[in-house]
Write a structure and sequence with these properties.
The protein is an alpha/beta fold. It contains 8 helices and 7 strands; from the N terminus they run ααβαβαββαβαααββ. 42% of the residues lie in helices and 21% in strands. Bound molecules: S-adenosylmethionine (SAM).
Length: 230
């Protein structure tokens, strides 16, 4: 197994934000939104029109909350990131999509959220955990701010077993990207957690370790509905 090699936590240069925004994540984002909306429907019941509050951590340029809200007009998202440059592009994307009335942007550190306990019905995040040197702090914050009976849906890259497999994934999924974007994907795979590391993390934070599954050749997913109070 190749060792974890951290990359910079925050993506806060204008170049990084523009590069990230222009990479084609459409298929990954579509699948993420569909999976989140299944959890939303399971919580509200099909056909129910009441609004559901979600928190997105490490939202980047907000393409995932946009995809979610374009498919379901009952969802409200607080979309957070620590990088100002990402949030600037996110704001432009929201205006273009006409969704600024349902998605609000906030600069926040996922390790120390400025939110009250139990304030969201669902907490979602894509591709954040691999940026965090000690991700337990983020998971504990997620557990604190999600309501009882709410859900947690996290997806991220899975660290490959070997350098050969890593290079294969880069070629397959970023072969057409520019050199900086290829390097970014390479470094992200190197910084990602293994399935066993995610299991151990969940256990440390009081969550069931089997809530994580391998969901593609390069992703893990934690999908978990918390128990309702008695
Ligand atoms: C790979 S991007 C993913 C963006 C988005 N979730 C997506 O899937 O398109 C990771 C994002 O996490 C942000 N990030 C890193 N550390 C963070 C932290 N401690 N708190 C909040 N956001 C953070 C980065 O600035 C970056 O925008």
């Amino acid at each position: 197994m190749i060792p974890r090699q951290l990359e910079p936590e925050v993506m806060d240069t204008r170049e990084e934000a523009i590069d990230y925004n222009s990479m084609d994540h459409s298929e990954v984002n579509r699948m993420f939104a569909e999976d989140v909306l299944e959890l939303v429907t399971a919580r509200t019941g099909a056909g129910n029109q009441r609004s559901v509050s979600l928190l997105d951590l490490g939202t980047g340029t907000a393409l995932i909350p946009i995809e979610v809200c374009q498919r379901n007009n009952c969802v409200r998202v607080v979309a957070t990131d620590l990088a100002v440059e990402m949030l600037k592009i996110a704001e432009r994307n929201l205006l273009q999509a006409g969704l600024e009335h349902v998605i609000s942007l906030e600069r926040a550190d996922a390790k120390q959220l400025p939110c009250s306990d139990q304030s969201f019905e669902g907490v979602i995040s894509n591709s954040l955990i691999h940026h965090i040197p000690e991700p337990g702090s983020v998971i504990r914050e997620i557990v604190r701010v999600v309501k009882s009976g709410g859900f947690i849906f996290l997806r991220d890259l899975l660290r490959p077993e070997s350098q050969v497999e890593l290079e294969r994934l880069v070629k397959q999924y970023a072969g057409q990207a520019n050199p900086r974007q290829r390097q970014l994907f390479h470094d992200s795979l190197h910084a990602a957690l293994t399935l066993d590391e995610v299991r151990a993390l969940l256990e440390q934070c009081g969550l069931p370790p089997d809530a994580v599954q391998k969901t593609s050749d390069r992703h893990w997913t934690v999908s978990l509905v918390l128990p309702d109070p008695l």
